[in-house]
Amino acid sequence: MHTQIANSLGMNRPYLPPTTQMPVVLGVELTIAQHEGLRRSLRSTFGVNTRAINLRIDPGMDLIYLCETTLPGSLACLAPLTRPGVTAVTLRRAQLDWNPGAGNNIGRGTPTLAALETGNCFLAANSRKVPIASFSSRNVHASHISMEMQGEPNLLEYLRADWFTLEISGTNRRRLTRPLALSASLEFNVQYAQQPIKD
Q: Which residues contact 62 (CB under 8 A, 6 or more apart)?
């Protein structure tokens, strides 16, 4: 009766709240290359004798790392983002995990996530780039790093692009003498448009 009166008066019909589904999870394998040294990199990249380069290089630059991977938006794990009514995707959780190879248990000389000091995580697509998470030394453990969210940007257009890039960069505590294999796990909340309640 009340619904009929409301409809006859042109009032808004009641709506269901946006649907809360299971989070979308994106898992990516990454590798931070072993340290070569900035001067050695200049020599191998440009073929010049670094003694001829009259530059004063900040030692801190030798502790910068960057790893990235470009992924297709057609990944099966991202299929829920193509459903009708999806209006926003926000990062819910971001974690890095150490992936030791066979026989590479924690020990002297074995690189773990404890070698990292700080880090920032970005998504990039269609000439746009957005920071989504970061970590500092207090977040770092040898086997895992729980990152902190950087606001709640809507990442829908990034993850629905034909291709997008996941980047993690930052600074090391110490130089890496071997490549550091790790995995990034990103969980996203998906928001849907409100749906009217059916009579």
A: 35, 37, 38, 175
| The Cα angle at residue 178 between residues 30 and 124, in degrees rounded to 5 | 25
Q: Residues 98, 144: contact at Cβ < 8 Å? A: yes
pLDDT along the chain (199 residues), means of 10: 40 48 90 63 46 47 84 95 93 92 57 92 96 96 95 96 96 86 95 68
- The conformation of residue 100, written as its DSSP 8-state character, comes to -
Q: Which two tokens stand for residue 190?
A: 């998906």
* Burial of 159 from C-beta contacts in 10 A (0-12 / 13-18 / 19+): buried
Look-up of token digits 């590479």: 104
Q: What is the dihedral of CA 77, 81, 83, 86, to 10 degrees?
A: 150
Residue 153: CB atoms within 10 A of its CB come to 16
Distances (CA, A) of 136 to 3, 119, 198: 54, 7, 49
The predicted model scores a pTM of 0.75
